[in-house]
Design brief:
The complex is a heterodimer. Helices cover 17% and strands 45% of the residues of chain A. Chain A is an alpha+beta fold. In chain A, a hairpin with a 2-residue loop joins strand 15 and strand 16. Chain B is of the alpha/beta class. In chain B, helix 6 links the parallel strand 3 and strand 4. The chains are: A alpha+beta, B alpha/beta. Strand 1 of chain A pairs antiparallel with strand 5 of chain B.
Chain lengths: 447, 316
């Protein structure tokens, strides 16, 4: 066991080191100059090019200065100065430019470099949640600033980028994710090192604010560690796999410390957990696609090193988003099935070792009605990981309003038929509402 | 049973095995020597094709009739990106919502940001609407680096083509003469077309128009149009009744008769504005491939100018 952990670490290290040794310009490595004369010529050429670029820039600035002054000039001179655009002559003499427009400064590129300097992209997403109604089994607070997620993202060097998401609750702080991604590995490998949400199913990979619901499905809470889920420190390796035509296949293998919420717990260093994921994707039409996944996770649970929890999952997503109306209409159907096999001691018979087999699933659908409104629904059903005789079920209706791309207001009605014992249930009727706001850098939309 | 499982190193070391497995399937090489180019948008693809000729194989991620701000980063693009030698992007944060994850996940070192195979076309173009002073989202989804719809000025098309020519020559120095010749031919054709376009648009110089989104500042400036308002109250914010009423008032005062709309926006509000003001709604294509007949960069301007001309003639 130990040797293999060492071996895998060694292999990972080697591949990273190899990537950094590789020339950063694998496309066409320039041949070294034959002699110093050539090198000098090249340097001179380069200088001339740079100077020419600068002259062009200065010219444009001059032109711009002249143009901004031109309204005060006599009319004939205006036409002369705008000679490169004779057709604009009429426009220039028209009264005042539209006041609403941004200043018409001009540049030939280059702005991006100056404007951003070397600061990472910083964003903060606020997630405020309120709950009303009746739930005696798993009550949540009436009003809470559930999470303020700080995102810091940057390219580290020619070989890597890094992403960190620090989640501030009302009282505590949690590093939700912080990892470096090595983008220049050989063999088409992608390696992430750090703490990250594991690629187990779909919902486990999605941050709270990007979910199509306010809460997480019952199956996530009962079997896959709840809100935090399988989120652990370790190595995350993935690669595209050879696939039949029109299919996209990706395999991931992840080696984690073994601590994830209440699912996995490492009592010893050797108690690592592993996650494997296989994703198959296919475009059915230009607007419709199918996304399938199989996942496996294995780790030790809170009872000690001799007690394992094995999780299996299958997920399917069907998306429809017409390209011409992408901002107005879309539809998504998703279902995830999770099987849990948890080693534990029998509650009934002392010292009897047993494995609890529990199953859970959810199905959800969301439809974007227009640019601002989305309706959705979700059906939940899940056993309890520790007592498979207990099965919860429920459903939700969700309505989302988007004032802009950077804020979101959502309401969710949730009904739960929650098991308190194998034969007794408690019904929960709740109304949840959520306000989300995004500050700072424009993040990518999850897919 | 349990002891065997915990001692079984096979499962626990799955990641190292996967690594070995992955190394056994290296990315397949290519027989021909064509440069595989991926572009963010169809316009860049068209320009790259003009310069690259039969020495390149070009494909665009976004389609011409798609809003380039909102493209789904589908895994099917990943395969193509993973094999690309050159990625040409519009830049100025136009693709910020979808391209960065595609680039990272492509696990293709050649096209990572800053690598030799990453080309930001905005570096060569003349950029308008660079905000000065404080930038906040009270202004909507503003582009703090300037307006990214710069390719709709043929002069910028030429500048981008030059940039692409330099990049391709750098990548295949043996074919530099070929690319130079293709660029010269492109420049000549563009200058000829430019004369026609200017001649067609000359009668309408200074005409006031309203556009849906701020997609047309470069186009308007080049062809002498005067954009006086927008259907969107702010970039990326859907039309509001109050703004629409104000816009109708402004259009009546200024006698604006043409509303230019991109193909991916809803026509409901533009149509109702048109009814109130007697203006016509004209759906212009901001990108190559927006309609079947728009097969290249030249046809893009042919199409838009013909449509505009018709709209101006109808309303005068």
């Amino acid at each position: 066991m130990k040797q293999f952990a060492v071996l895998s670490a060694l292999l990972l290290f080697c591949s990273v080191a190899h990537a950094q040794d590789a020339p950063s310009a694998p496309v066409k490595p320039e041949a070294p100059p034959v002699n110093t004369e050539d090198a000098r010529m090249k340097a001179l050429e380069q200088q001339v090019r740079t100077l020419a670029g600068e002259v062009a820039l200065l010219r444009d600035e001059l032109k711009e200065l002249r143009e901004t002054k031109s309204p005060a000039q006599p009319a004939d001179q205006q036409v002369l100065l705008a000679s490169s655009h004779p057709e604009l002559g009429g426009l220039l003499s028209s009264p005042a430019p539209a006041p609403a427009q941004a200043t018409q400064t001009q540049t030939f590129g280059g702005a991006s470099g100056n404007a951003k300097l070397l600061n990472p992209d910083i964003s903060l997403i606020g997630d405020f949640i309120g709950t009303a109604g009746h739930n005696t089994v798993a009550p949540s607070r009436s009003l809470e600033m559930h999470e303020s997620e700080l995102g810091v993202q940057a390219i580290i060097d020619p070989y890597a980028r890094a992403d960190a998401f620090i989640s501030f609750g009302e009282t505590g702080v949690n590093v939700e994710e912080a990892y470096v991604t090595f983008t220049s590995l050989p063999g088409g490998l992608l390696l992430k090192v750090g703490k990250k949400r594991a690629d187990f199913g779909k919902v486990n990979t999605i941050h709270n604010h990007a979910l199509p619901f306010i809460d997480r499905p019952l199956v996530t809470n009962n079997l896959v560690g709840g809100e935090d889920g399988i989120d652990d420190a370790g190595f995350f390796l993935s690669r595209f796999l050879p696939a039949p035509k029109d299919w996209f296949l990706e395999g991931s293998a992840e080696l984690l410390r073994g601590d994830s919420a209440d699912v996995f717990q490492a009592s010893r260093r050797q108690d690592v957990s592993v996650v494997g994921h296989l994703r198959a994707y296919r475009d059915l039409t230009e607007s419709t696609n199918l996304d399938l996944g199989l996942s496996y996770a294995r780790g030790h649970n809170d009872l000690g090193s001799n007690f394992l929890t094995n999780l299996y999952s299958a997920d399917a997503t069907l998306r429809w988003r017409p390209l011409r109306r992408a901002i107005y209409n879309s539809f998504l159907f998703r279902t995830e099935l999770v099987w849990s096999a948890r080693d534990q001691l029998s509650a009934a018979v002392p010292n009897l070792f047993q494995t609890q087999h529990a199953f859970g699933m959810y199905s959800s659908a969301e439809y974007r009605v227009n640019r601002r409104w989305t309706v959705g629904g979700r059906f939940d059903r899940s056993g309890h990981a520790r007592d498979a005789r207990l099965t919860d079920s429920g459903f939700s209706g969700i309505l989302t309003y988007w004032p802009s791309e950077f804020s979101q207001i959502r309401g969710q009605y949730r009904f739960g038929h929650l098991a308190t014992s194998p034969t007794e249930f408690s019904n929960a009727n709740e109304l949840l509402f959520q306000f989300l706001f995004v500050m700072g850098a424009h993040g990518a939309h999850p897919f | 049973m349990l002891r065997i499982l915990t001692k079984n190193p096979f499962i626990a070391s799955a990641s190292s095995l996967a690594l070995v497995f992955a190394l056994l399937f290296p990315v397949a090489g290519r027989a021909d020597n064509k440069i595989r180019i991926m572009t963010a948008t169809t316009d860049l693809a068209s320009l790259a094709q003009e310069i690259g000729g039969d020495k390149v194989e070009v494909e665009s991620v976004a389609r011409g009739y798609q809003d380039p701000h909102f493209v789904d980063p589908k895994p099917s693009f990943l395969l193509k990106l993973s094999k690309a030698e050159l990625l040409i992007v519009v830049g100025l944060e136009l693709e910020i919502g979808w391209l960065p994850p595609l680039i990272t996940q492509s696990s293709n070192p050649r096209i990572q940001v800053g690598a030799p195979g990453y080309l930001d076309a905005s570096r060569f173009a003349r950029i308008l609407e660079l905000p000065t002073g404080q930038v906040t989202r009270a202004e909507g989804d503003v582009h703090p680096l300037g307006n990214p719809h710069y390719w709709l000025d043929p002069d910028n098309g030429l500048r981008i083509a030059k940039g692409i020519q330099n990049k391709l020559s750098e990548m295949r120095s043996n074919d530099a003469a070929y690319f130079a010749q293709r660029y010269d031919a492109f420049e000549q054709r563009l200058k000829q077309s430019e004369q026609q376009w200017q001649a067609q648009m000359k009668p309408y110089a200074g005409r006031k128009v309203v556009t849906y989104h701020r997609s047309w500042p470069n186009f308007a400036e080049h062809f002498g149009l005067n954009v006086v308002g927008y259907v969107e109250p702010r970039p990326g914010i859907p039309p509001s009744p109050q703004h629409t009423v104000e816009l109708i008032g402004q259009m009546k005062r200024d006698n604006v008769k043409v509303i230019m709309v991109e193909p991916y926006f809803d026509l409901k509000t533009p149509n109702s504005i048109a009814r109130e003001t007697g203006a016509v709604v004209v759906v212009l294509m901001p990108s190559v491939g927006g309609e079947k007949e728009i097969t290249d960069y030249f046809k893009l301007f042919d199409y838009d100018i013909a449509k505009l001309k018709k709209a101006f003639d109808e309303t005068h």
